[in-house]
Amino acid sequence: MSSFTQALARGLNIRHIRFMALGSAIGTGLFYGSASAIQSAGPAVLLAYIIGGAAVFLVMRALGEMAVRHPVSGSFGQYASRYLGPFAGFITGWTFAFEMAIVAIADVTALGIYMGFWFPDVPRWIWILAAVLLISALNLMRVKVFGETEFWLSIIKVTAILAMIIGGAAIVVFGFGLPDTANPGLDTMLGSGGFFANGFWGLLASFAIVMFAFGGIETVGITAGEADNPKKAIPAAVNTVPVRILLFYVCALAVLMMIFPWQDIDGATSPFVQIFDSLGIPAAAHILNAVVITAALSAINADIFGAGRMLYGLSRQGQAPASFAKVSRHGVPWMTVATMAAVLLAGVVLNALLPENLFKIIASIATFATVWVWLMILLSHIAMKREMKRRGLPASEFGVPFWPVASYAALVFMVFIVVLLGVMPDTRVALVVGVVWIGLLLVAYRLWVRGNGRVRAELVDETGVEWVGAGTAQPAAGADHPAAGNAGVTS
């Protein structure tokens, strides 16, 4: 394997990118974390997912506008560096890598637990080691191989969720598998305290888990540097993936709470286990186990990809060790993949020792990192729009709707979530950990980042550029090349 530094290979098409975001964002948050959110808010958790999903969609549109204008690896880390300053890019990039590491550690540990259902006598670490080696190997292959793997893993997961929704709806309508005394539907969902069963405070308390569930969707922006045609792939993914995720969460949980009283969901296992058991399928538990294993593998796959590409971008900017920019002959940043694998192996030991009731704390820490990244995306986008207006640059080809009201509303909501983490007793530790993390990054930046790492990222404006093939761009008819015609966009 060669260890030279070069650009990443392009090989991701529209379906790869769509399902990669689904793979990263549909995992532990839905299959396990939803139980905690339901406990906190009751039926009102559906409103929390709708509000959170709307805010995330606006974040994704902001990211999409920047990614189409500047399709680079490192994505929002480089956008923050360009429009907010090099320190902002440093914090954003490393915080995203931190987020991906936390989520991946949780998922890989959950995988070991899932495998124990089938092989209780086999030590858990064997499955964890096998999963880490497998996913790392996939990430070291050509990016198209990675994209295909993620596509099929996500297909299985999405199909299972749709089956849950359809099967659950059949139970609600026909009562399959339920006792004669059961009354599925809105009566069951609202029968214990109404929609706001735990009050407005309960709704607020659920946001820590709800926003955790959407975490990872920003990986779409990371793919811009390896998309065959970012001007088509990024808008297609941004416009459809947030809506799909929102529908999966809201519909699946609504059906669940129409079948079982929400207060009976204790979080001891995935709430979806109850749906499968109610369908009367003899192998229900085994089917569910296969699904959650697929979900874990898919999420880990996408997390390693996202963190690795971000570290690659940071390295190219001089904000991470130079070795992270080494690229294999397949156009893959192999050193970042190896580092993530090592982090997973080291973190599994600690994560396996934590009792299951600490899941909410772990999720809330990941929520802080996720929301921080979303905040930086929104601030970078706002700064870019201001610069475009100030310099009279051409309008974006994929702009944010209802600008500027929607962007500022999303920004206020994300600040609100960060404050909420500190207000809620169960999640306050996340804010403390987050503040310590930002402090450590500040110290690291001042001590170790030198030279180009202290300079704003230089980004070429590709507005008006047509992509005519895999990794091939040319100026549109009548348009100047971005490097010449829009030179004011680069630092």
Structural notes for this entry:
Helix content is about 70%, strand content about 5%. With about 500 residues, the chain is mostly helical. The chain contains 19 helices and 4 strands.
In brief:
By secondary structure, this protein is mainly α. 68% of the residues lie in helices and 3% in strands.
Number of strands: 4
Question: Sheet with the most strands?
Answer: 2 strands, antiparallel
What is the rounded distance between the termini?
35 Å
User: Helix and strand string, N-terminal first?
Assistant: EHHHHHHHHHHHHHHEHHHHEEH
Q: Which structural class should the secondary elements be placed in?
A: mainly alpha
Mean of pLDDT? 80
Number of helices in the DSSP assignment: 19
- The unreliable regions are 1-5, 475-491
Q: What fraction strand? A: under 5%
Strand order of the largest sheet: 1-2
Q: Give the overall shape, derived from the CA principal axes.
A: globular
Helix content: 55-70%
Rg over CA atoms, rounded to whole Å, is 22 Å
What labels describe this entry?
491 residues; two-stranded antiparallel sheet; 4 strands; disordered C terminus
Chart the SSEs and their pairings:
Elements: E1 4-5, H1 14-25, H2 28-31, H3 34-41, H4 45-69, H5 75-84, H6 86-118, H7 124-140, H8 143-174, H9 186-190, H10 199-214, H11 219-222, H12 230-259, H13 272-278, H14 284-316, E2 326-327, H15 334-353, H16 359-391, H17 405-423, H18 428-448, E3 465-469, E4 472-475, H19 482-485
Antiparallel strand pairs: 1-2, 3-4
